[in-house]
Amino acid sequence: MKRNARIVAFMILCGLMVAAGLAVPVIAQEAEPTPAPDSLEGLPVDPRFGLVESFWGPDEAAELNVGWDRILFYWNEIQPTGPDDWNTLHVLEEWLVDAEAHDRRVLGLLKNTPVWATDGDPFSGVPRGLYLPVDDPDNLWAGYVRKVVEYYAPRGVHDWIVWNEPEIDTGVYGHEFSGSVTDYYQLLKVAYQVAKETDPQATIHLAGYSYWHDPTFLNRFLNVAVADPEAKENNYFFDTFSLHIYFRVETVESLLEEVWNIQRQFGIRKPIWINETNASPNLDPLWPVERPAFPIDLDQQAWYIVQAYALGFGNQAATVGVYKLLDVQLPPGGESFGIIRPDFSHRPAFDAYKTTVRYLSGFHYPVIRQQTADYYIFTFKRAEDVVRVLWSRKPFPVTLDVPALADEGLLVSATGETEPVMAEDGIYPLRLEAARCDGECLVGGPPVFLVEASDMAAAAVPTAPRAQVIAETPTTVPTVTVTPRVTNTPSPTATPLPTDTPTPTYTPTVTNTPELTATPTATATALPTATNAPGESPTPIGVAGDVSGSGSGFSSYLFLAAAIVLGGLLAFGFLRKRQ
Question: What mean pLDDT is predicted for residues 314-332?
């Protein structure tokens, strides 16, 4: 009987252990950041995300879901010796076929006067016959534009940028047009008339404007335009403004505001494209560059891309395009802007572009912008989620209480590492890491995307306070750290030989260096600002619902009791059988 009792006790104990193991929930370990999925396959192409000269890497362009590309149409290459020349090998048709196959819009940049077509300097000279009627064969510029548009419109090119940075003076690095402001207006007017007559779908883009070389250029140009009695009824002979912005990421915001203000002064309302922006890294260990100003490392280039898109769309840019996919035919030590190095290895900026497309593509206006002296927050609404982009503006970390729209969200670093985050009493306590500043903060600190669930896409974003600077509590605050990704090992690659591509010029110093503060202090939270796309009205967002989970404690106790009873019955049956 003692032996039987021991058996009964043992079986009951086994039943208890099994029941306990099944009933007690497993304690979740702290989540490790995980890479984002490698593919954007299935994500619709958003034409607002551009990447200049993507045609040099068609596979990479497809991987990144690039929305638009820019190709140089050099007049001196297409018609090198006279108006009867027609060199179609300058722009390869396979580039255009690939762009069409991937729903990628192509912008053609028209520039570079051939020697035979000007009495001025080669490449930058005013075309001969520019002020003749557009149907006069001696108007050489009109003849070139007509032939280009006739040939390339059926091949999918309907966007034409008329020249590049005409504000840069003769003798200054980057100079491309030797004519006056009036000459440039006539160049634009002729191109507009000819292109629209030849291709009704044509869109004419104002030349990319770098601003800092001549902050007065746009005002002077528009004064010439509004003085033309034919201009107003012809849309002032252009469809979009174009901006080139480099290195100081917050000038994306200030220059957009400047151009919107200038438009208001002249009673004009046209879209603004940022068709070049970047911060080229001179501190790349695999491609070092000696540069006297603007020290930028690989992480900062990646952060710049995320921040430029948020600042651009948050200030109503129609599109934002990064300059560029990769640099080709660049000698060692040459300034490399590409998110892919000349040897085709990827920089972290490649992943940053991909992450930005993944989490912002398909957003709807208005974009809600909030900023203080210490940080930025931009809120993007998409059909399936709400995405906030946050970063510190200063050389110290900032800890924020960010109001939650859901019980949980996903934190994503600039280069795509992800980490789940749980709301605590309706907030996400987040730490934004410091910017790297050498005298001035050219780029903000590591940006993070805060992504919340699909049923929140119709939710109301809290109005005030949206975020609050609080005392740092690093032991309890989840942090997204930017972990450098392993870049591709450089390998010898055959590099196609393109025509020369001008390198964007440096941005001269114009802003005061911000004063550094030793530690963050509590600041009043700025009210968020909604920015609408040109021609769009703000769309209100509904009220967030409460998401609650169901407990499992009671069912666990029931299961435990059932296991004990079952263990007893098995023991009883075993003893009866032995007797």
Answer: 96
